[in-house]
């Protein structure tokens, strides 16, 4: 879809409004009408630019996530992980966690949302994480046949989900750093 006529600043403004609404009302109750009213734009413009509510929400989430994993290269896997964690503050982590929790329920009833999440957020993240891990293998930090390599995404997603279930506490940098040091790095042989 053509994305002309929207400046990057206007696009970021729209995405911020979408995420605010998403946090306030949840995915199911979020409407293009509400987004149009909040952003002083027309519903037709929103559909022309994004095509669907699912695509708009997921692109807003993607815009909200400035860390492109493949771009992080400190020279070591431990350094890369810690650099990625340092780029998001605890408030942002808590907000992202809350947004993803809200969406995790909605994806079961919304195949469009599920597909958009996979295409626009999950696959790029998996590709970026794969690049970090491949570099670690290429540098000789991690054995290419280490069975834990394919489970790193599961470990990280599990850590985020389990923190709130097990401890009733939000995910923060300190927890994810400790988790990486105690679980992820030893599993990879670091």
Task: Offer a few descriptive terms.
9 helices, mainly alpha, 190 residues, elongated, single chain
Q: Could you please describe the fold and organization of this structure?
A:
By secondary structure, this protein is an all-alpha fold. 71% of the residues lie in helices and 0% in strands. The chain contains nine helices and no strands. The radius of gyration is 18 Å and the shape is elongated.
- Note the main sheet: none
H and E order: HHHHHHHHH
Globally, the shape reads: elongated
Would you count the extended β strands for me?
A: 0
The number of distinct helices, counting runs of at least 4 residues, comes to 9
How big a fraction of the residues is strand?
Answer: under 5%
Rg (C-alpha, Å): 18 Å
Spans of at least 5 consecutive residues with low confidence: none
How does the helix and strand content classify structurally? mainly alpha
What number is the mean pLDDT?
A: 87
Termini Cα gap: 44 Å
**DSSP helix fraction:** over 70%
How would you name the oligomeric state of the polypeptide chains in this document? single chain
């Amino acid at each position: 879809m053509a994305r002309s006529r929207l400046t990057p600043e206007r696009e970021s403004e729209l995405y911020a409004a979408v995420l605010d609404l998403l946090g306030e009302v949840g995915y199911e109750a979020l409407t293009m009408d509400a987004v149009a009213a909040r952003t002083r734009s027309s519903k037709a413009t929103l559909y022309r630019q994004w095509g669907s509510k699912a695509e708009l929400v997921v692109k807003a989430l993607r815009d909200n996530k400035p860390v492109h994993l493949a771009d992080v290269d400190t020279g070591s896997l431990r350094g890369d992980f810690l650099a990625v964690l340092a780029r998001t503050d605890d408030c942002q982590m808590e907000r992202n966690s809350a947004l993803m929790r809200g969406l995790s329920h909605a994806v079961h009833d919304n195949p469009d949302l599920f597909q958009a999440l996979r295409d626009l957020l999950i696959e790029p993240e998996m590709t970026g994480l794969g690049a970090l891990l491949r570099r670690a293998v290429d540098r000789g930090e991690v054995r290419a046949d280490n069975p834990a390599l394919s489970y790193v995404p599961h470990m990280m997603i599990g850590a985020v989900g389990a923190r709130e279930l097990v401890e009733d506490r939000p995910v923060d940098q300190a927890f994810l750093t400790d988790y990486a040091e105690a679980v992820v790095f030893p599993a990879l042989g670091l």
